Amino acid sequence: MTELTCADTISRFTFDDCAVRGEHVLLDSSYQELLAIHHYPPVVAELLGELCAAACLLAETIKFDGLLTLQIRSEGEIPLIMAEVTNQQSFRAIARQAQQASSRDFQQLFTNGQLVLTIQPKNGKPYRGIVMLDGNSLASSIGAYFAQSEQLETRLWLHSDGQRASGFLLQQLPGDENSEQWQHLSHMASTLTKEELLSLPRETLLYRLYHEESVRLHPEKPVQFQCTCTRERLENALLSLGEAELRDIIAEKSVIDANCEFCNRFYSFTAADVDAMFGNSSPESHH
Length: 287
Prior knowledge:
The protein has 10 helices and 14 strands. It has helices at residues 29-37, 42-60, 106-109, 138-148, 179-189, 194-199, 202-210, 231-239, 243-253, 271-277, and strands at 9-15, 20-27, 66-73, 80-86, 90-96, 114-121, 127-132, 154-160, 165-172, 215-217, 221-222, 224-225, 256-259, 266-269. The strands form 3 sheets. Strands 1, 2, 8, 9, 10 and 11 form a 6-stranded antiparallel β-sheet that branches. β4 (80-86) and β5 (90-96) form a beta hairpin. The protein is elongated. The N and C termini lie far apart (73 Å). GO terms for molecular function: protein folding chaperone; unfolded protein binding. Redox regulated molecular chaperone. Protects both thermally unfolding and oxidatively damaged proteins from irreversible aggregation. Plays an important role in the bacterial defense system toward oxidative stress. InterPro entries: Heat_shock_Hsp33, Heat_shock_Hsp33_C, Heat_shock_Hsp33_N, Hsp33_helix_hairpin_bin_dom_sf.
């Protein structure tokens, strides 16, 4: 058994004797890539790590081809925080207007908060679930979301220290009537410490919790930080401003500069680019 945690991976485990599945994710260099883009206060950086871990865990429990987004909106010290992950386990995340956040009180950070879960398949209609933020942690709030939306019984444990982020999920599958076993497995997971979740290899972690159970490990999958921004997406965002406003900017600055708020990638658009956006060969036709 290895003594080194395989970081930036997510993996499933199942129990042979009951209809419960689990997921374990550990983010290391991918999490550091995210934090290197923006300088967040410590409490924001840690919550971003937890949110990314949670999004990765939830995406792995759903069969879809597209994007899953976890978002919290609030009137507290963190007005908006969100994480997006693809079905291929590529994620990105951001917090807005949270540079002054410093409280360690979850409700003060997210006063009157709403938790929004969105699944956007490449083909098909999107799904969105919204509930008031309930609980004193991100993990308990997501658990409350599943309870309120009458979905599968689901519990999460999330931790981050600004260097690593990790998550652990248990989910009771349909047809399992053994509530006593579910309570036992959940109780054992609740004994996990922050240090254990952030440092132990999954084999050691699962042995520590469930050495008396028959646990089946599934192959690990890589997780990576990767922004989904493209020049085409930025063009679509600019189109929403309207042709007149874009030409005013070109007249004033000769070029339109735009950057992705997730990854800070820089894009530049010239007068010729604006012509192409609106299907015109030259700006003179608009005078």
